[in-house]
Amino acid sequence: MENQVDNRFTWVIKNFSSLQTSRVISSDQFLIGGCKWRLVGYPEGYNKSHDYFSLFLQVADYTKLPPGWRRHARYLLVIVNQNPDKSSKRNESSKWFDQKVPGWGLSAMLPLTKLHAKDGGFLVNDELKIVALVNVLEVIGKLDVLDSEVPQETTQPLKKKKLVEDSEESSNLVNGTPPVNETMNVINGFQVLPSQVDIVRRIFEKHPDIALEFRPKNPHLRNAYMNFLLTLIETLCQSPGKLTNEDLVEADNALTYVKASGFKVDWLEKKLKEIREKKEDEETGQTRIQELEEGLKDLKEKRLEMETQLEKVKAKVLAARASLTLDDVV
């Protein structure tokens, strides 16, 4: 039995003792972050880890994905101890999944002695409960399905497989749901266009806490807020001279709107303040330039007038200095 809510997937394996002869078992596919996943378990250990129960998170149908695909995800795998007084077994990590390494987890996840202990708490009524939390950080290549089309809850029977590499498919959790035609990239849980990848990646690299308190869960709202943020940044990247006072007022309103969603954008608020100050400096400077230019124009006109008067005076002086001729005297 399986259950999925948001980025949390629960796999309850019934009649676990009857699976000891199975080399590998897997859950049905589940969809998180627009990507198909599955859990893969080895009841008697993977490879040489014969004394442990092995557990992995794997990209479903990875052999059918186009070349060059990659998925970056942070995950938490938990083998639940159903005794509230005892600790569960956890494995948390952040990994890139690709064609060479389509699955990550632990070969030595839980010792079989602890798993089968009578009062160990892991097996209750011959049921083993496993929980996976997956946060898709970035996707290179096409998404398997839109987040808005992921069902909130699914229940599927357990399926057995001979090898983890087998391409045999489990029941599709989204029967009738067409694949995404448009190429999208997922960065820290936000779907963005290829043209937006660099700037969004740069935002999260420089401000990793920007979305820690981001509240919207609906993928369409998440995309809308991200696009709003990108538009605001694009506006602020313009020269202050091209921004009108109305533009700055709208930018301030947009910043308030973005902050209300939970985005931590104090750095952007600081930049907007700097731009507003630059705009004021520019306007003040432009006014002063006009005043100086007008003053310089007046000075030039006065200089021209004085130069004209000077030439007239010089002419009179030269005339006064000239010697008289005989004709002038007689």
Task: Explain this structure.
- With 330 residues, the protein is of the alpha+beta class.
- The protein has 2 domains: 2-193, Apoptosis, Tumor Necrosis Factor Receptor Associated Protein 2, Chain A (Sandwich); 233-321.
- It is 33% helix and 26% strand.
- The protein is built from 6 helices and 14 strands.
- The strands form 3 sheets. Strands 1, 2, 7, 8, 10 and 11 form a 6-stranded antiparallel sheet that branches. Strands 3, 4, 5, 6, 9 and 12 form a 6-stranded antiparallel sheet that branches. The chain has a two-stranded antiparallel ribbon with strand order 13-14.
- α3 (219-236) packs antiparallel against α4 (245-260).
- The longest helix has 56 residues, at 266-321.
- It starts with a strand and ends with a helix.
- Keywords: Coiled coil.
- Residues 265-316 form a coiled coil.
- This is MATH domain and coiled-coil domain-containing protein.
- InterPro entries: MATH/TRAF_dom, MCC, PLipase-like, TRAF-like.
Give a quick account of the main beta sheet: strands, pairing sense, barrel closure. Answer: 6 strands, antiparallel
What best-fitting shape do the alpha-carbon axes yield?
A: rod-shaped
Per CATH, the superfamily of the largest domain is Apoptosis, Tumor Necrosis Factor Receptor Associated Protein 2, Chain A
**What is the N-to-C order of secondary-structure elements (H for helix, E for strand)?**
EEEEEEEEEHEEEEEHHHHH
Count the beta strands: 14
Q: Give the total of domains.
A: 2
Distance between the termini: 139 Å
Q: What value does the average pLDDT take?
A: 81
- Low-confidence sequence ranges: 147-182
- Structural class per helix/strand content? alpha+beta
CATH class descriptor of the largest domain: Mainly Beta
Q: How much helix is in the residues?
A: 25-40%
Query: Would you tell me which CATH topology of the largest domain applies?
Result: Apoptosis, Tumor Necrosis Factor Receptor Associated Protein 2, Chain A
The total count of helices amounts to 6
From the coordinates shown, what is the CATH architecture of the largest domain? Answer: Sandwich
- Kindly provide the radius of gyration, computed on alpha-carbon positions and rounded to a whole number of angstroms: 37 Å
Strand content: 25-35%
Organism: Cardamine amara subsp. amara
Protein name: MATH domain and coiled-coil domain-containing protein
Region (Disordered): 156-178
Pfam families: MATH_2 (PF22486), PEARLI-4 (PF05278)
